[in-house]
Write a structure and sequence with these properties.
By secondary structure, this protein is α+β, with helices and mostly antiparallel strands. It has helices spanning 8-16, 27-33, 82-98, 128-137, 166-171, 175-186, 199-210, 215-227, 240-267, 274-304, 339-353, 375-380, 401-424; strands spanning 2-5, 39-47, 50-63, 66-71, 101-106, 111-115, 121-124, 140-142, 156-161, 189-193, 231-239, 308-318, 322-330, 358-363, 386-391, 395-398. A nine-stranded mixed sheet has the order 7-6-15-9-14-13-12-11-10, with helices on both faces. A seven-stranded mixed sheet has the order 1-2-3-4-5-16-8, sandwiched between helices. The longest helix is centred in the C-terminal third of the chain and has 31 residues, at 274-304.
Amino acid sequence: MRIISLSKEDFDDYSKNHKYGSYMQTSTYGELETGRGFKVELLGFIDGEDLIGAGMFLIKEAIWSYTYAYAPRGLLMDYDDPEQVNKIISCLKKFFYKKNIVSLKIDPPILASEKDFTGKSFYVSNDINEILSTLKNNGFEHKGFNLYYETKLPRWNVMVGLDTNVNNIFEGFSEENKTKIRDALNLGVYVELNNHISAKTFYELVKPAYGQVGFNYVKAMIDKFTRDGLMDLFLVNLNTGTYLEAANKLYAEEEEINLSLGNMIESNDPRYNKEKVINDKLASDKRLNELKKNVISATNFMKNTPHEIRIGAAMVIKSNTGIESIMLFEDKKYAYLGGLPTLIYELAKYYGKEGYKYLSLGPGVGDFRQSCPQYQTMAMKKGLNSKVIEYAGEFDLVINPLMNKLYLKKQEKDKKKLQKLKEKK
């Protein structure tokens, strides 16, 4: 067993075809993270003449001349083969020790279970305990089966199953979301692929939800991942002309219903259930009032923006078999138009036809109680042909015990200093 440095092309080719390959295990992501002060190592593990594993490692200063390593969503190896894992980790420990690396963190996307939104499991891995045992035997410490966001990357994710048959995708959505999508499309909401939009324009659009990421990082992501053909950008638009036309039509239809109900009440015709007709009239009055607001809103939109309004956006990255949603944005002012479920449906439709197997909707949690602080966020991702994916989690491997201990002490001191500075402010 020996370790070699891989070229960007060779590493990306290996990652693209690996079971655990993801955008975080690409040379592109490594290049992106150099902007945050990391050095990047693209390493391959050779057994005989065969490349049996690889990893994109982010290296950063720990203490003095020592560093630590992190393989986001790595390593790329066969975790079901204990002998192969032993060979790779044994070789890697020696390699990193010589390079003054004190510790290694990994968080491979090893599937532990799949659940519905009540927390009920409909798939549980038969191999997960053996994999955990193999990693433990090689010195890794499992950081636990956390329920929230305690680790670098989320252990829980929400994913939409994709299909080349569009009807199958739509049927997997809840009735509520189906109605929202139909109404949105009728009102003039549409989704467009737009990889030519400037990074500045895209950032300003999503800034209310993703401003903490910062423009420079968003621009770097767009520049690097679109350059390598791994990213797509989408816009959710409202055609104001269609919206006004549809709003007027819906108002006219409801006005006719309302008038008919009023005539039925005045007629005192014994054939009608008067109590039911009165209740229907009250409900129609309420709906008519809402539809009138839509007409006024649509009229103002048409005056101020005669063509279209941007009401949402998405940034996605293509992995080997799936699509990772990096940003899913809906302008809260226009949430009533159903732009978000429509966006997710159109993404699922587009990439399903392309043969991709899943669309990630981003982080989830393992706490399914209504009292959970993240319950509303999880509820928004429900009913979209979606399920909750549980990964094995995060693992730490100490390479140099003494220096790692000093590094952890230094981290603790730095945290205390930072806390005191915050308290002074």
